[in-house]
Write a structure and sequence with these properties.
The strands form three sheets. A seven-stranded parallel β-sheet has the order 3-4-5-8-9-10-11, covered by helices on one side. The chain has a two-stranded antiparallel ribbon with strand order 1-2. It is built from eleven helices and eleven strands. α1 (about 35-45) packs across α2, α3 packs across α4 and α4 packs across α5. It is α/β, with parallel strands linked by helices and about 325 residues long.
Length: about 325
């Protein structure tokens, strides 16, 4: 049974597990719009109210798809979308968070989503060429206009979060966080808790590693994001397989799937944490949502913490790592 959680101190309430929609439009194989639409509608039936998209997913296709699925159900859901990239001829050509571009991007998102407001608007990546105060100032103006309800950041560092929050309250940080990616714990999560900012973990299943489905990078097709994932390459892949084995062993004892263990661990991290596992298939959606019924004991949580060493390899390729605000 999905309960509700609050992100930030401004009143944004979402389902404890949301749905990351990126994979329906890019990165993981071939699109299947009919199955994706069926998955989105099934999510609504099962109590998901939190849907995550971005203009860059597709590009543009994902927002249009989500708008189609939620037509007539808009008042039942929280839609989160993101801006921050320059998109030319259907390709990403850089970052762009200039205030005029923020306004332009939001108008496009509203049109594609078929709505008059965005519930949670994120800056997708920090643009070092534009002061965060100017970016959040433009976002805050959209709040005053009624086009946006709450503000968020994605993959922002501690100082950026503080500076942004001083301009307008930030309700959520979206960042990669899971059993195998713990980089937020030393500094970012304490900052979020101090300021009252919620956490929305993406890639909560370790890009398939924590479910036992990840393959070596070279086995994926050229158009699949995972083909260039350093953690799926060479010795990194071998080391990370050993990490995943701990999760799989606990799953067998709990009569759960490894993915459910990974999501249950995230749900245990606090009432201000709302993961967004991504899928484009109903079967995986139903499996993921069942994690809400898995309870990990203090001893099991301690076992996971003790057994999982740092993941081998960087999260992204070198150029992509440059876009992270760390």
């Amino acid at each position: 049974m999905l309960t509700k959680r609050s992100l930030g101190r401004q009143g944004l309430e979402v389902s404890a597990l949301g749905l990351g929609c990126m994979g329906m439009s890019q990165s993981y194989g071939v699109r299947d719009d009919p199955e994706s639409l069926a998955t989105l509608r099934r999510a609504l039936e099962l109590g998901v109210t939190f849907f995550d998209t971005a203009e860059v997913y597709g590009p543009f296709h994902n927002e249009e798809l989500l708008g189609r699925a939620l037509k007539g159900r808009r008042d039942q859901v929280v839609i989160a979308t993101k801006f921050g990239f320059r998109i030319e001829g259907g390709r990403i050509t850089g970052l762009d968070s200039r205030p005029e571009h923020v306004r332009e991007a939001v108008e496009g998102s509203l049109r594609r989503l078929g709505t008059d407001h965005i519930d949670l608007l994120y800056q997708h990546r920090v643009d070092k060429q534009v002061p965060i105060e100017d970016v959040v100032g433009a976002m805050a103006e959209l709040v005053r206009q009624g086009k946006v309800r709450y503000l968020g950041l994605s993959e922002a560092g501690e100082q950026t979060i503080r500076r942004a929050h001083a301009v307008h309250p930030i309700s959520a940080l979206q960042s990669e966080y899971s059993l195998w990616e713990r980089n937020l714990e030393p500094r970012i999560i304490p900052t979020l808790r101090e300021l009252g900012v919620g956490l929305v973990p993406f890639a909560p299943l370790g890009r398939g590693f924590l479910t036992g489905t990840a393959q070596r990078a070279e086995s994926y097709p050229e158009n699949d994001f995972r083909r260039n994932d350093p953690r799926l390459q060479g010795a990194n892949y071998d080391a990370n397989l050993r990490i995943a084995a701990t999760v799989q062993d606990l799953a067998k004892r709990k009569r759960a799937t490894p993915g459910q263990i990974a999501l249950a661990w995230l749900l245990s991290r606090g009432e201000d944490v709302a993961p967004i596992p991504g899928t484009k298939r109903r079967t995986y959606l139903e499996e993921d949502l069942a994690a809400a019924d898995v309870v990990l004991t203090a001893a099991e949580l301690a076992q996971l913490d003790a057994a999982l060493p740092p993941t081998a390899g960087p999260r992204y390729s070198a150029p992509q790592m440059e876009t992270l605000d760390r």
